[in-house]
């Protein structure tokens, strides 16, 4: 359990489904076989995988991407959480997007397991990650006729920042399980979620945080038993999906700690994201936007509903059974809402 729990420390900041009518699902494809075909694609040899070069001030590195399906007007690039997690958090999308004819692209950000992992702290900042996403977009041939960007948790921060700079390249934006203000997230975690725990357990956790005793196995054990299974993924530990456990195993703690920090009740200390806040700029986002919140999330669902009204063209999706990984613990509501959003934007009915 001690080893198991130590792998789970980064999980907090990672980081549902009635199908839409089938006549909507494949309208841009002549057949389902065409959706599945790799014929005449430059990534046929690798089964959809591309290692994309990313230019930075400190050199050129490669990031891993994998395309699934073919749809000229519906292509969803998935931004994983963390920072420093992996695309594996989204493997459940395999169960929902293909039958809807939606193309989607798995992507490990620089520093994540399947991409290059340079040991250079100067690379781990939001501005550079935004430019990385833009280079990935260009390499994959995505544009405002087809490009949907879906980001969850840290990926939601990255998606918001990308939209604020490059929204002219987007067709649709999905902000999943992420507030627009870290200070307000900190307040929610410390004044709402923490006090919901058993007072003695919460006191013990806070004492270890104040002592910066984050390596104590007891810290991970308490969080997993009393916090993660309530607010990150609402399943007993032996029912956590293998893909999620694989993500935790592959996490890059250097990236995670530098940007998010050690604490699971907010971002504190010297973590670079601790003052991040774009709530006053949401009104600048005019691209069709879906904001996803969940009842048991680590993020305040009321704040995310507010976000959907701040953007110029927004919709709110509420997952009443979900937590931070609501693509797993409230799949019915999560995927119904996301799929409907993509179809509605594509048909001009959003």
UniProtKB/TrEMBL annotation:
<feature type="domain" description="AB hydrolase-1">
    <location>
        <begin position="76"/>
        <end position="330"/>
    </location>
</feature>
<protein>
    <submittedName>
        <fullName>Proline iminopeptidase</fullName>
    </submittedName>
</protein>
<comment type="similarity">
    <text>Belongs to the peptidase S33 family.</text>
</comment>
<dbReference type="InterPro" id="IPR005945">
    <property type="entry name" value="Pro_imino_pep"/>
</dbReference>
<dbReference type="InterPro" id="IPR029058">
    <property type="entry name" value="AB_hydrolase_fold"/>
</dbReference>
<dbReference type="Pfam" id="PF00561">
    <property type="entry name" value="Abhydrolase_1"/>
</dbReference>
<dbReference type="InterPro" id="IPR002410">
    <property type="entry name" value="Peptidase_S33"/>
</dbReference>
<dbReference type="InterPro" id="IPR050266">
    <property type="entry name" value="AB_hydrolase_sf"/>
</dbReference>
<keyword id="KW-0378">Hydrolase</keyword>
<dbReference type="InterPro" id="IPR000073">
    <property type="entry name" value="AB_hydrolase_1"/>
</dbReference>
